[in-house]
Automatic annotation (TrEMBL):
It comes from Gilliamella intestini. Keywords: Glycosidase, Hydrolase. The keyword Hydrolase applies. The active site is at residue 361. One of its GO terms (biological process) is carbohydrate catabolic process. GO terms for cellular component: cytosol. It comes from the Bacteria. This is 6-phospho-beta-glucosidase. GO terms for molecular function: beta-glucosidase activity. InterPro entries: GH (IPR017853), GH_1_N_CS (IPR033132), Glyco_hydro_1 (IPR001360), Glyco_hydro_1_AS (IPR018120). It holds the Pfam family Glyco_hydro_1.
Length: 464
C-alpha cells in the first residue's frame, strides 16, 4: 500500500472571515449575524445597531490587515490550498442592495492575489456561519423565499469578479448546523418550529443549487462543492434499537448531502416530515433547480458519537447532544478523539455518493502555552493530526477519492461556538488574550515544523 498521498493532493488549512479578519465595520462592511452573537454561536443574540458593546471577534487576529504575513507563513509550511470565506456583508452590507460594495470586493482581490504569489489555491466558502443581519430583521432570514434571490445575486457577483482567481468553491458551511442553531444557520429565532426551520433549510438548499448552476455557467473550469458537518454516529450497543437509532441519527445530516448530490429529496424524509407535521412549500421551479448538483462533497470532522434508543444516556455537548463512546478519550473541551472515524466517514460518503471528497476541517482545540523562549510545544496536536492523517491515507488506499485536507485553524483564531481565543487550533500561535490584550504577534509552534515536513514528504513521514 502507498505510504504517500497523491501528487495532486491539496494540502493546507481552513479559516473563516468572521473568526480571523476583524475590521468588523471597516471598508463599508455591514453587520452580520456573527457580529450579533458576540459571545459565540450559542451566546445571546444582540442587535448591535442598538447596543454599544464589543466582542473579541471585532478585531479577531486582524487578518484583514496582516494577511500578507500570514499567507507567507502558510506558504512556508508548504500549503498548496487555503480554505477561507468571503464575508457576505463586505460585498452587500445589508444583503438586498443592487450594487456591491467595491471596497469589500477589492479586499478579496488583494487576498487572492497574495495567495497566488505563493502558489496557494483558494477554496472559498460563500457563507460561513454568517449572513447580513438586515436580512434577518427586515425579511425574516432564510424563512423568506426572497433571500434565495439575494444570495444568488451575491454569488453571481463574486463568481464574475473572481472567476480568474478562484477555481474551488463551497456554498454553505456545515449546512446541517441549522438543525442545531437556526439563528446561525438560517437566521431564524431559536424557538422556531421544525416546520419553520425545514422550510428555511429548503430555501437554502435551493439557493445552494442555484449557486452551483451559476458557478458552472460563469466559471466552467471551476469545481463547486457542498459542506457537511460530518457527525457520524455509531450504535452505542449491538441492540437492534440502538442500531436503528444510529441509522436515523445519520440520516438527519446525510439528508443535506443527499439533496445536494442526488438533486432531489430522499424518500426516507417523507415519514419524518409526516410524523412532525412538516409540509414544505416546494415549487416545480425548486425541483428543477435542485437537479443542479455539486462536483464534490466536503466536510468537517472532529469527532464521532454514539446513538441509542435510551434518551437518558445523552449529554449536552459543545454543539450537539452527544452520547459518549466508552472506548474513546476526549480533548480538553470534551470532544472525543476517534481517528478511525474519519476513515469510516470517508468510506461511507464515497460509497454513498461516488463523488470526490475534501476534508475541509479537522483539528484539535487546546490550551497552548507560549514559553519564555517563544516556543510552543504542542505534541498533543501533532499526535492527533498524525493519527487522523494516517487514517485518511488508509481511506485513499481503500479506494476513496480524496481531493485534499485543510486543517481547521492553521493559525489561532476565535472559536465559533463560544468566541474563545484560549481554544487554540493553529500551527501558528497568536499572542492574544480573551480580554483582547496581547501583541497579536505570530509564533511558530512545534506543529508548524511537523506539518511542514508532512507536506514536503507527501505524508510519508507519518507514524502509523
Amino acid at each position: 500500500m502507498s505510504t504517500q498521498f497523491p501528487n495532486n493532493f491539496l494540502w493546507g488549512g481552513a479559516i473563516a472571515a468572521n473568526q480571523v479578519e476583524g475590521a468588523y465595520q471597516k471598508g463599508g462592511k455591514g453587520l452580520s449575524t456573527s457580529d450579533c452573537t458576540p459571545n459565540g454561536l450559542f451566546g445571546d443574540i444582540i442587535d448591535r445597531n442598538k447596543h454599544n458593546i464589543t466582542s473579541i471577534k471585532d478585531n479577531a487576529i486582524d487578518f484583514y490587515h496582516r494577511y500578507p504575513e500570514d499567507i507567507a507563513l502558510f506558504a512556508e509550511m508548504g500549503f498548496t490550498c487555503l480554505r477561507t470565506s468571503i464575508a457576505w456583508t463586505r460585498i452587500f452590507p445589508n444583503g438586498d442592495e443592487e450594487q456591491p460594495n467595491e471596497a469589500g470586493l477589492a479586499f478579496y482581490d488583494k487576498l487572492f492575489d497574495e495567495m497566488a504569489k505563493h502558489n496557494i489555491k483558494p477554496l472559498v466558502t460563500l457563507s460561513h456561519y454568517e449572513m447580513p443581519y438586515y436580512l434577518v430583521t427586515q425579511y425574516g432570514g432564510w424563512g423568506n423565499r426572497k433571500v434565495i434571490e439575494f444570495f444568488t445575486h451575491y454569488a453571481k457577483t463574486v463568481f464574475e469578479r473572481y472567476k480568474n482567481k478562484v477555481k474551488y468553491w463551497l456554498t454553505f458551511n456545515e449546512i446541517n448546523m441549522s438543525l442545531h442553531e437556526p439563528f446561525t444557520g438560517v437566521g431564524l429565532d431559536r424557538n422556531s418550529t421544525k416546520q419553520q426551520i425545514y422550510q428555511a433549510i429548503h430555501h437554502q438548499l435551493v439557493a445552494s443549487s442555484r449557486a452551483v448552476k451559476l458557478c458552472h455557467d460563469i466559471i466552467p473550469d471551476a469545481k463547486i462543492g457542498n459542506m457537511l458537518l460530518g457527525a457520524v454516529a455509531y450504535p452505542l450497543t449491538p441492540k437492534p434499537e440502538d442500531v436503528w437509532a444510529a441509522h436515523n441519527e445519520n440520516h438527519g445530516w446525510l439528508f443535506f448531502g443527499d439533496v445536494q448530490v442526488r438533486g432531489y429529496y430522499p424518500t426516507y424524509m417523507n415519514r419524518f416530515f409526516k410524523e412532525h407535521n412538516i409540509k414544505l412549500e416546494i415549487t416545480e421551479q425548486d425541483k428543477h433547480d435542485l437537479k443542479e448538483t455539486v462536483d464534490f462533497v466536503s466536510f468537517s470532522y472532529y469527532m464521532s458519537c454514539c446513538a441509542t434508543s435510551d434518551e437518558s444516556q445523552k449529554t449536552k455537548g459543545n454543539i450537539l447532544d452527544m452520547v459518549p463512546n466508552p472506548y474513546l478519550k476526549a480533548s480538553e473541551w470534551g470532544w472525543q478523539i476517534d481517528p478511525i472515524g474519519i476513515r469510516y466517514l470517508l468510506n461511507l460518503l464515497y460509497e454513498r455518493y461516488q463523488k470526490p471528497l475534501f476534508i475541509v476541517e479537522n483539528g484539535l482545540g487546546a490550551k497552548d502555552k507560549l514559553e519564555a523562549d517563544g516556543t510552543i510545544n504542542d505534541d498533543y496536536r501533532i499526535n492527533y493530526m498524525n493519527d487522523h492523517l494516517v487514517q485518511i491515507r488508509e481511506a485513499i488506499n481503500d479506494g476513496v477519492e480524496v481531493m485534499g485536507y485543510t486543517s481547521w485553524g492553521p493559525i489561532d483564531l476565535i472559536s465559533a461556538s463560544k468566541a474563545e481565543v484560549t481554544k487554540r487550533y493553529g500551527f501558528i500561535y497568536v499572542d492574544l488574550n480573551q480580554d483582547g490584550t496581547g501583541t497579536i504577534n505570530r509564533y511558530k509552534k512545534k506543529s508548524f515544523y511537523w506539518y511542514q515536513s508532512v507536506i514536503s514528504s507527501k505524508g510519508e513521514n507519518l507514524k502509523a
